[in-house]
Design goal:
By secondary structure, the chain is mainly α. Helix content is about 85%, strand content about 0%. The relative contact order is 0.06.
Length: about 60
């Protein structure tokens, strides 16, 4: 019966560790999502500026200006 108690404690420890790792991954994922949103916003602003300047219109579409 002692081995079952030890195994139960071990499994509970592994479970807690897994939950902790999952929470850390969620935090990291959220941080990456926020970073991507900022980058996307910067891209949009730069594209709008390029579209507003006729001499750079081709560059905004990935074409040589």
């Amino acid at each position: 019966m002692d081995w079952t108690i030890e195994r139960l404690q071990q499994l509970r420890g592994e479970y807690a560790s897994g939950e902790s790792q999952l929470a850390e991954l969620d935090r990291r994922r959220q941080g990456v999502c926020e970073q991507l949103l900022r980058i996307e916003g910067a891209i949009r602003v730069l594209e709008e500026q390029l579209h507003a300047a006729p001499e750079f219109a081709g560059a905004a579409q990935g074409q040589p200006g």
